Amino acid sequence: MKIIRSLGAMTAWSERLRRERVTVGFVPTMGALHDGHRALIRAARLRCDALVVSIFVNPTQFGPAEDLAKYPRSIGKDRELCRQEGVDVCFEPSASAMYPAGFQTVVTVPAIATRWEGEARPHHFAGVATVVTKLFGLVRPHLALFGQKDYQQAALVRQLAKDLSLGVEIVVRPIVREQDGLAMSSRNVYLSSDERILAPTLYKSLQAGAEAIRNGTTDASAVQSVMAAVVRQEPALTVDYLSVCDPLTLEPLSIVTFKAVLLGAVRLGVIRLIDNLMVTMPVGRR
Ligand code: AMP
Hints:
There is one protein chain. By secondary structure, the protein is of the alpha/beta class. The protein has 2 domains: 2-173, Rossmann fold (3-Layer(aba) Sandwich); 186-281, Pantoate-beta-alanine ligase, C-terminal domain (Pantoate--beta-alanine Ligase, Chain: A,domain 2), CATH 3.30.1300.10. It has 11 helices and 9 strands. It has helices at residues 7-19, 35-47, 75-84, 95-98, 110-114, 117-120, 124-139, 151-163, 193-198, 201-214, 220-232; strands spanning 2-4, 24-29, 50-55, 89-91, 143-147, 169-173, 237-245, 259-268, 271-280. α7 packs across α8. The protein is globular. It starts with a strand and ends in a 6-residue tail after the last strand. The structure holds adenosine monophosphate. Adenosine monophosphate is lined by residues 29-30, 36-37, 39-40, 146-147, 149-150, 173, 175-176, 183-186. The site of adenosine monophosphate has 17 residues, from α2 and β5.
């Protein structure tokens, strides 16, 4: 496995392979890799000839009061996981190379970025959209894989790849969970043992909402109440949002007629957990 840090070397490697008609796959990450990342990398491995994983803790997607400085970093282990999974290139650019003095451009996808995570983290999605656009420019992949774990992020990346005709196929893969349902996340290492026990409550609330829809509840506010009631059972948790949304636009629904995505974010101590669940109304109930 090659480790590439220079931007120019990354593009040169990719361009050479593209000229040889090799399919280049790409999995962007912030490192601290876990089995959710592993599943994305495995899925990518099956879809391409050459596979690039980037490890870059992107400063511009963190707010001033967020955890950039203490975001978990484990580059040695990350490289080992990439090696095990047959990754061809680990791309590890520095922040100063990515954002040299004079860097100005900001990519925004206003409608998708407004609500939910966008409201809680005002600069987050502009940082994500900008870094993803730049990484695509450097890696020049044919396809790039993202996790459904970050549902709004995946929707935003799809939109920007389409709007800007980036020529990259965006593939979104399912959420990998711990046995008790907690969505895997690099930030889960911040959870204390007590918090870790409570953390799956968010997923349980989404499951309760999905169950209500499958049982015929079409009123989105009734579904929200079902989800909120589950979270309220654990006073240590506070709800940021629990919403019933259109899976494509992420706009809140008032009535569920066919498909919905349940999006949730809760706070547990200083930690914020996000999760989501797609639900389809059974045919007989539509
Ligand atoms: P991150 O390193 O957190 O920026 O995540 C890199 C990619 O891995 C993103 O596309 C995430 O959505 C995806 N990812 C993170 N956690 C999971 C998970 N539990 N299951 C599936 N994909 C995930």
